[in-house]
Specification:
about 140 residues; alpha+beta; 7 strands; globular
């Protein structure tokens, strides 16, 4: 099982060299964003985040997974604070749209989370940007 996790991690690292998406990863993200937005054959937590680009103002669509915890919904950047969608959300003052079969206008609020004690994470798991709460 550990070997499978390591192989999956290596494949992901090749799709995101230097924490930036490769050409193949960009194509895959566009396909995922289109599929998640329709809500057809997409997991319930898989949605498309739409936010205006911080430089162009054009709508940027990114596939994300919404985490549910105690009735609240959270978005966490797996690529950290330098991910473009995180910087675009900050520049837009948290205003965004979540799409999964319909459009939901949300205000994302960023907050800090205290580090938790415990065992070291699995390979490939790294510190991420502070999560955003969807509201």
């Amino acid at each position: 099982m550990r070997r499978v996790v390591e192989l999956l991690y290596e494949a992901q690292r090749r799709l995101y060299p230097g924490d930036r998406p490769s050409r193949l990863a960009r194509v895959m993200n566009r396909v995922d964003a289109a599929q998640f937005a329709t809500g057809v054959l997409a997991p319930r937590r898989a949605v498309t985040l739409e936010v205006p680009g911080r430089r162009t103002g054009r709508r940027i669509a990114v596939p994300v997974v919404v985490a549910d915890l105690d009735g609240d919904r959270y978005l966490v950047s797996m690529l950290g604070e330098s991910a473009n969608w995180v910087r675009n959300v900050r520049a837009a003052g948290g205003r965004a749209v979540l799409r999964h079969g319909g459009r939901e206008h949300v205000l994302l609020r960023e907050f800090d989370v205290a580090p938790r004690p415990g065992p070291a994470p699995l390979p490939g798991v790294r510190a991420s940007a502070p999560p955003f709460r969807a509201g």
